[in-house]
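User: My advisor asked me to double-check a structure prediction for MHD1 domain-containing protein before group meeting. I don't want to rely on an old file, so could you generate it fresh from this sequence?
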Amino acid sequence: MQPGSGETHVFFPDSLGDDLIIDVSDTKGKPCGRVVAQVATMAEEPADKLRWWSIYREPEHELVGRIHLYVQYTTAADENNTKYGSVAETVAYDIVLEVAMKAQHIQQRNLVLQGSWKWLLTEFASYYGVSDAYTKLRYLSYIVDVATPTADWLNLVHELLLPVLMKSHGTATLSHQENRILGEVEEQIEQTLAMVFENYKCLDESLVSGLAEDFRPPTGLAASALEPAIKLYSLLHDVLSPEAQLRLCGYFQTAARKRSRRHMLETDEFVAGNSEGIKMDMVTFTTAYQKMKSLCHNIRNEIFTDIEIHNHHILPSFVDLPNLTAAIYSVELSNRLRSFLVACPPTGPSSPVADLVIATADFQKDLASWNICSIKAGVDAKELFHLYIVLWIEDKRRALLENCRLDKVKWSGVRTQHMTTPFVDEMYDLLKNTLTEYEVIICRWPEYIFVLENAIADIEKAVIDSLEKQYVDILAPLKDCIAPKKFGLKYVQKLAKRNSTCPYVVPEDLGILLNTMKRLLDVLRPRIESHLRSWSSCIPHGGNSAAIGERLSEVTVTLRAKFRNYMQAVVEKLSENTRMQSTTKLKKIIQDSKGLVLESDIRGRMQELNDQLIGAINHVHKVSEVHVFVAICRGFWDRMGQVNERSIEPSFLLLSYELLTNLGLGCLEFPGKPQREQGLVQRRESCSVGAR
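Assistant: Sure, here is a fresh prediction for MHD1 domain-containing protein from the sequence you gave:
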């Protein structure tokens, strides 16, 4: 209103509690302050029409001036008989509308007037000049009181509201009454829209309320009410404005939080305030981990359902529903997993724990495959379980090392069907089970292969050390034959000076040790190495797969060297037995037999040696398994063949070969044997070729 223009405005206050608010600006349009005129003040002295009103600047409420207004206030005792312009007609229309709605039982899911009542309302409005905007707004004011988040309610509201808003945004304007009703209606519609969007996975058209009271898993289908709700929201808001976009996105984020909260209820008992490190029995532990696994699957299904809804192209382009909700779900799931693992720490990759690891890793993998953007503080399965995995491997390492302690070994003096100690088979069964347990971990994060390999190598070394400690007394006599090996010929001379009068007999326990070491080299360790190397396929292209097995190879070299040394020491001990008496020294027998020409005389001289060798070999055969026996015989063959055979009679050479053959050595196949046999035959023919 311009001062002095004589312009007039008519207002229809609802009650004495209303205020008339006048904003005052200067000639340039700059706000100067505000006048708040109470209707109650005007009603006290209706005859006082011309008044001065104070102008205040907010928010300081500073008095900046006064304004002169002519205000006329009139009222009547019976409001229904009062006529202010079209007010009387609208009051009459309201009465007719209310009667019609009662007559047709307008309520939830029954919202449309039909038949004669609809005709009567149309004719009444036309005859008394009630505007179309008012009829629609008044009808809306009734049906918003029975609002349901259903497609039929939303479609009807959109149908009624569209022409009203088109009028208000066009050249025509709404009356004060219509504006007031519109404001009230919009507020209630906004609440219903919020209900639709915040429960978009719980909407059910088959229910009277339109909303499922119980919590249900997502179906993967977009609710029927979602599309009309988006249309109605777009009608009420400028969806190109950032405020409207943020508001709509906020509804869906709230929905995700509500759904997430409902899913989390199943596991709340395990992350209660004082449950950190709580002790629980195996059944409760398994149940807890199964519920966490189900939680991962349920959250995963929620995001997948959002993808399906998004693919229906119902939502505006600015609403990226999967990324919007996944950010909520992933962060809250990550927080719950972290809290749960603290409250119920996993002690190893047992079946329930492995299932949770798989579910968590698959959740992360699915999000990546669905092109969900990277989520800060979201689920990172490796980061969640890394410290636990390292701790599991270390705990397993320590436990198995503890089993290798001499006072913990249960199988001392016992042997298996393979003539080995059960201790080694038991330990390698545990190692094999360990590798099987960690299959789930390695297949997803192959970098743990090297951590596991280091632990296994330490355990294998401890197994070998434990074996040597178990049989330390048995190995003691062999030490002299092993330690000086690097001195070459001096070693042989040192052995010759020994004055032991008791022949060495291979103890049964030494046979068990050698059999065990051979089984380690040929059977048990290759299984572990093969299992470990099979994981090289899990390493991504460009990874260092060649490094797998390096630590185990070091153990192989050490074990093979120890086995070879012990075998050579046994052979040397058996060879020493033949040199203890002059009657069994092969070299002495050869020297003393140079003048003999008859085979019977030579046989007689070699009989004692023959008997000794037969006894020694038979005993070795009893205490060792076939591969160890063959290896000792090979070594014995070579050691006995080191006697200088130059200028020896061919008949004696053939007798020597015959002796070894009779001992069972002749039936063994090993490198060098054919050449030696051929050499003996050639020596017999020409006496010019030396052979062992």
